[in-house]
Amino acid sequence: MTSLTHLQKLEAESIQIMREVVAETENPVMLYSVGKDSAVMLHLARKAFAPSPPPFPLLHVDTRWKFRAMYEFRDRMAEETGMDLIVHINPEGVEKDINPFTHGSAIHTDVMKTEGLKQALDHYGFDAAFGGARRDEEKSRAKERIFSFRTAQHRWDPKNQRPELWKLFNTRKHKGESIRVFPLSNWTELDIWQYIYLQNIPIVPLYYSAERPVVERDGALIMVDDERMPLEPGEVPMMRKVRFRTLGCYPLTGAIESEADTLPAIIQEMLLTNTSERQGRVIDHDSSASMEKKKAEGYF
Amino acid sequence: MPTKHLTPEILNKLRLEAVRLRLDGHTVAETAARTGLSAPTVSAAWKAFREGGWDAVAVRQRGRRAGQAASLDAAARQALETALATLPPTGEPAWSSRGLAEALKGQGHRVSPRAIDHWLERRDLKPEPLALNGLARRRSQLGRWYRQQLAPVLAQVKQTGGAVWQGGARTPPPDSGLAEEPRRYQLYLHGKRGALFTRVLAAPPLADDYLALFERLLATTQVPVALIFRGADLQAAPAVGDWLSQHPEMRLVMMPAGLPA
């Protein structure tokens, strides 16, 4: 009997989870944030249901503030995979012109991401949504189950979660409930990078180091991705060799100074790092236990 | 045999052996063949022996003895760091090693420009200018940029008797290599023969810092200047754009991002 490598085991587990969801739910969807985890999740989904395209659409809850490179990449991948891409932008947020600068990261995230996601799930009637969250990202994600049940109001109760012993998943839903499913729960950031490297998975170029215009905000390097970024009086963006460990809304995502412009170099950098990738996300610093609070309110 | 790679000890042994062979009556050519030294080295060793005896045969130690290097004391280093954050009183665009040495002399620190050069180099504050020679023929992104954007500007500026300078903004790594250390922000220019003019700031340079650099550069050169610049997105700063439109004698050519230094 041949033994599987740890990546093959993770891959098999994720594929099994995806097939289980498709078998047990009526209207699943894959949340596609365009980041590296989404790239791996999409790759696994294509493997799980090959040769057909995955039997569910991709849903991108857009905030209008993602990096330009992410939009280009998203559209390219939707075309390449032949999957339906649903892009949802919270119309109320658009009407009020909610943005990270005038409204702050907390309101922007709540309105454009959390509320936007809930609106999209309700509108299309999705009863299961795949997400690319991993347990090593953040402490509240660490305790969330792979099959995470949400009430009809999309609320998460961390104190009322189902056991998942021996990888047996109870997918029975109460009326109105939906499931957030995290097939990459047991992957680490390093696993993701190794898998991307081994499987040659396309990712947004922002993950590779390059000279980019950045300004400093509270110690974080924020890329000036378009003319909407307000500069301080007299401020001049500097061109610095940076890359992103995580991707979100560009005004809320800090870059790291890095020379890693290839996958092996990124993996080598990963091996030496001892900080979470989400350290670069401004939204995670809003308040203590902010992620758990956001998740309880319906954040992905 | 080239002797440059030999340690002084081995070279001296061979020189003594060469003198012994010459004393035994061997010719210079025979001695050179047997010791592996060159004929001029054999002759030099023989001449040294005839003029000064056995003690004169050994070569003198190369370079400075350990500890003899001109070092900067803590007060001089502090004075340098303070000066680098300011604009030089001489009107130069930024600090040159010579300007820093003069300024320190005024404060009672006798430091040579060369020692300051070494100090800057050790602190990774001596960026290299881009070698423009041969770029026109390169079949790379850099070559294309040179031919399409830089060469026409250089031709125009040279026609009017102007000067070509290079410069940029950068963030050198922290002195200790520890990421927690405060960042340093360097503004620099390279003038004739790559002479370095620099400032080191504790915060990212603002539009006024860039403009002070450019204004002083024009005042120093007194001729039209083509400035090849990198490391800042100056197009995003309206103040710089306005200033450039009022100073057509300054032709700013931004190096595209991602090109090798």
From TrEMBL, chain A:
<dbReference type="Pfam" id="PF01507">
    <property type="entry name" value="PAPS_reduct"/>
</dbReference>
<feature type="region of interest" description="Disordered">
    <location>
        <begin position="278"/>
        <end position="300"/>
    </location>
</feature>
<dbReference type="GO" id="GO:0070814">
    <property type="term" value="P:hydrogen sulfide biosynthetic process"/>
</dbReference>
<dbReference type="InterPro" id="IPR050128">
    <property type="entry name" value="Sulfate_adenylyltrnsfr_sub2"/>
</dbReference>
<feature type="domain" description="Phosphoadenosine phosphosulphate reductase">
    <location>
        <begin position="27"/>
        <end position="254"/>
    </location>
</feature>
<comment type="similarity">
    <text>Belongs to the PAPS reductase family. CysD subfamily.</text>
</comment>
<dbReference type="InterPro" id="IPR014729">
    <property type="entry name" value="Rossmann-like_a/b/a_fold"/>
</dbReference>
<keyword id="KW-0547">Nucleotide-binding</keyword>
<keyword id="KW-0808">Transferase</keyword>
<comment type="function">
    <text>With CysN forms the ATP sulfurylase (ATPS) that catalyzes the adenylation of sulfate producing adenosine 5'-phosphosulfate (APS) and diphosphate, the first enzymatic step in sulfur assimilation pathway. APS synthesis involves the formation of a high-energy phosphoric-sulfuric acid anhydride bond driven by GTP hydrolysis by CysN coupled to ATP hydrolysis by CysD.</text>
</comment>
<dbReference type="InterPro" id="IPR011784">
    <property type="entry name" value="SO4_adenylTrfase_ssu"/>
</dbReference>
<protein>
    <recommendedName>
        <fullName>Sulfate adenylyltransferase subunit 2</fullName>
        <ecNumber>2.7.7.4</ecNumber>
    </recommendedName>
</protein>
<dbReference type="InterPro" id="IPR002500">
    <property type="entry name" value="PAPS_reduct_dom"/>
</dbReference>
<keyword id="KW-0548">Nucleotidyltransferase</keyword>
<dbReference type="GO" id="GO:0000103">
    <property type="term" value="P:sulfate assimilation"/>
</dbReference>
<dbReference type="GO" id="GO:0004781">
    <property type="term" value="F:sulfate adenylyltransferase (ATP) activity"/>
</dbReference>
<dbReference type="GO" id="GO:0005524">
    <property type="term" value="F:ATP binding"/>
</dbReference>
<comment type="subunit">
    <text>Heterodimer composed of CysD, the smaller subunit, and CysN.</text>
</comment>
<comment type="pathway">
    <text>Sulfur metabolism; hydrogen sulfide biosynthesis; sulfite from sulfate: step 1/3.</text>
</comment>
<keyword id="KW-0067">ATP-binding</keyword>
From TrEMBL, chain B:
<feature type="domain" description="Insertion element IS150 protein InsJ-like helix-turn-helix">
    <location>
        <begin position="15"/>
        <end position="65"/>
    </location>
</feature>
<dbReference type="InterPro" id="IPR009057">
    <property type="entry name" value="Homeodomain-like_sf"/>
</dbReference>
<protein>
    <recommendedName>
        <fullName>Insertion element IS150 protein InsJ-like helix-turn-helix domain-containing protein</fullName>
    </recommendedName>
</protein>
<dbReference type="Pfam" id="PF13518">
    <property type="entry name" value="HTH_28"/>
</dbReference>
<dbReference type="InterPro" id="IPR055247">
    <property type="entry name" value="InsJ-like_HTH"/>
</dbReference>
